[in-house]
Amino acid sequence: xxxxxxxxxxxxxxxxxxxxxxxxxxxxxxxxxxxxxxxxxxxxxxxxxxxxxxxxxxxxxxxxxxxxxxxxxxxxxxxxxxxxxxxxxxxxxxxxxxxxxxxxxxxxxxxxxxxxxxxxxxxxxxx
Length: 127
Known about the structure:
The protein is an alpha/beta fold. It has a single domain (36-126), classed as Cupredoxins -  blue copper proteins (Immunoglobulin-like, Sandwich), CATH 2.60.40. 20% of the residues lie in helices and 29% in strands. The protein has two helices and eight strands, in the order H-H-E-E-E-E-E-E-E-E. It has helices at residues 3-17, 38-47; strands at 49-53, 56-58, 61-64, 69-74, 83-84, 99-103, 108-113, 121-126. The strands form two sheets. It has a four-stranded mixed sheet. Strand 1 and strand 2 form a beta hairpin. It starts with a helix and ends with a strand.
């Protein structure tokens, strides 16, 4: 190999090395995509806030004590709702920047969805 080919070959090897496995996210079976760390999920649950962004509820599952006021904040450009499957609560339409709060006094698991985007689902576990 001539010296003028060594540098491009070295650059290619280094670039390919950066594409290898690792354990950071991705959509493959091993990476499983990004998951918010449990400590952050707990902080959000204690604060009683669920953010709506990128067509997702975050955190997707929260645990709160009975009587906690849970606030939904729409950070998306699209309209959304948080509508309980059992009809126990419904935020109605939340535009960009809109907020709505619900207070769940009865212990149990409440599954909810966005009425405009049924693929968006979340869950509140009330203790």
